[in-house]
Specification:
With 213 residues, this protein is of the alpha+beta class. It is built from 4 helices and 6 strands, in the order ααβαββαβββ. The chain has one domain. It is elongated and about 80 Å long. The termini are far apart.
Amino acid sequence: MRAPNAPHATGRQVSCSRRSVRGFTLVELMIVVVILGVLAALGTIGYRKWIGRARSGEAIAMLAEMSSKEQSYKLEFASYLPLRADNKADLPSPDEVETAFYPVFANSSTFDSARTQTSIADSTKWPQGWQAVGIRPRDVGLYCTYMTNAGLAGNSTANLKYGSVLIGANTAAPWFYSLAACNLSPTTGYPNEVSIFAISSQSPVLRIFNEGK
């Protein structure tokens, strides 16, 4: 009774073995590729959102620091002080050029604040304005780049793109506004292809231009 059944059992084992070594079909492989693509896309979106929140947090903290130090400076000297990489102390500040931003020019081809931090560990290289008002960043490196413009009572902001929006015609008293330029996308190009965070002497409310850039 056992002998006739043996070949039949062996045949089933061979058939199963052949199925096990067959591998994935083309359709199965395509499904796997699609699933991996969706997961990668979701991961990229999540990473960009996380990066955006982190850089926004840095910008908010730095702008708050600049605003606080400007207010303290005004109590002593009755005016605000420009905080610019080019150390221009003109009142009113003459422009919003990319070279006025510190620690990296806002239009630099290497400006990748989404991934690359710029060291500011050596405080002797900070702009003169930063040193004069006593800026104290939280970290020894920054991802975004910063500048502050200022003016006296009566100084117009008509020729300043962001200044005219943030200060407007409210120049009966000394004024200042601070900008943070952050690159949150794969491309960069100041002023339209970077996110601009701003705060001014007119309002403590944070303003954002080109959000997500």
